[in-house]
Design brief:
The chain has 87 residues and is α+β, with helices and mostly antiparallel strands. Helix content is 17%, strand content 41%. The chain has one helix and seven strands; from the N terminus they run E-E-E-E-E-E-E-H. The strands form two sheets. It has a five-stranded antiparallel sheet, with no helix packed on it. The chain has a two-stranded antiparallel sheet with strand order 1-6. It is globular, with a radius of gyration of 14 Å. The chain starts with a strand and ends in an 8-residue tail after the last helix.
Length: 87
Amino acid sequence: MYSYALLEKGCYYLIEEKEGSPVALIRVMLESDHCLFITRYGETEMTEWKRKSDPIFEIIELLDDKAVKEWESSYYSNEDAYYEDED
């Protein structure tokens, strides 16, 4: 069992928050003395605060810069597919 205290600001992680839960991609945006402000990426982006002591079942992977760039180009290009041009 891990906790959010192990995660570093500005980094992207693939985590399994609870045993058997889906894999989630998160990024740590801000760190305070006792909490982290994270962005969770899925169909939409969701932001939330987590206590550093909150448990994480498994930290699967810290994404490297290359993987982040590949993911960003795919994620943000697919985001435009949901909006039609209003000409």
